Amino acid sequence: MMVSCLPTMMMAQPAKYCMTYSDYKTHNWNTIESLVDGRSEMLPQIKMDETDYKVKSGDKATDRILKKEVFAISFGKNLYVNCRNLRCNDIILDTQQYVQAYPYAGNKLLIAVYHINDGAFLLGFGANVASIFTPLGTSIALHSASAALWLNRSKLNSYRCYLIDTDANEKGRYPVTRIDDDYMTNLLSDDAHMLARYNAVSSKRDRQSASNVLAVLTEKGLVEAEN
Fold this sequence. Notes:
16 strands; 8-stranded antiparallel β-sheet; 227 residues; alpha+beta; elongated; 3-stranded antiparallel β-sheet; 28% helix; 10 helices; single chain
């Protein structure tokens, strides 16, 4: 199925970054333009690949920082977390690029990461969205370049949700928690209706997928499905 996802342009807002999860929690953001410091005239851009995002500034030194050191970037109401230093049980995630993130239950963050072993489900879809560059100097509605990815349930079945709620360790790695059956059972232990809603999906893979998890957490009021 081919999906149209041309970006919708809105009022200009500066692209911002934060270096750590602590910076995110304390709203300590700086503009990406301050990193570039006049070395490039290009507006910072975000590139949506098939399953994740890359950020470019036009300046090599800045791009190196964005790739290896920055924790998260934001523009408008959209938030993206760098997976490079995230670890689940000391194992790297299936991407080291940026993924879209959502505030979760206060200062926590929820991300959904494509599970690479689930196969190449993006035939056709990827042809439309791969290599789309969008200026970060322009705020983009969620229901635009990323809408197909986040709102198409069949695609989200191949994504896993992870929770960020802890600062980095001494090695600069952030331990993340996979949101799986055990997590959801514990979370919804006092809400039989929502637990039944979650468990209504019989396949374990589909039940633990971002499609089901995000739907339940959104209905529970813990996650805003639309930034």
